[in-house]
Fold this sequence. Notes:
By secondary structure, this protein is an all-alpha fold.
Amino acid sequence: MNNLISALIGALIAIMIMLNGTLSNALGNYTATIIIHTIGLCAITLVFLVSKQKFIINKGTPFYLYSAGAIGIFTVLFNNLTFSSLGISLTLALGLLGQTITSIIIDHFGLLGMQVMKYQKHKLIGLVFIILGIVVMAVF
Length: 140
């Protein structure tokens, strides 16, 4: 089930980049980013109301975890900037490469409280294929 949900997330991200980038081209990057996140806030508020969940902030939560909101803003902003010149496919592929490399580093060193999962050299084959795919997409 989680594999199916992850595949759905990938499809939604591709659609999101296209919609956000097109909106950004029409309205400007900063205006589009504000609108995108305002609508996102309204959507999650509706989810809270429908599911009858309570909004809880745990006082013991490390402050740096809240930085994910700012990272989300910059992710949308930078995707919108690159969308018009790179297109959806290359923007998404380069983003996934960045995610993959960053997640390997986080796992390998156990950063941000994650369990240490040492990187194994045989996994480098997959990383090389990702990079070759990006080169093919960028050149041809």
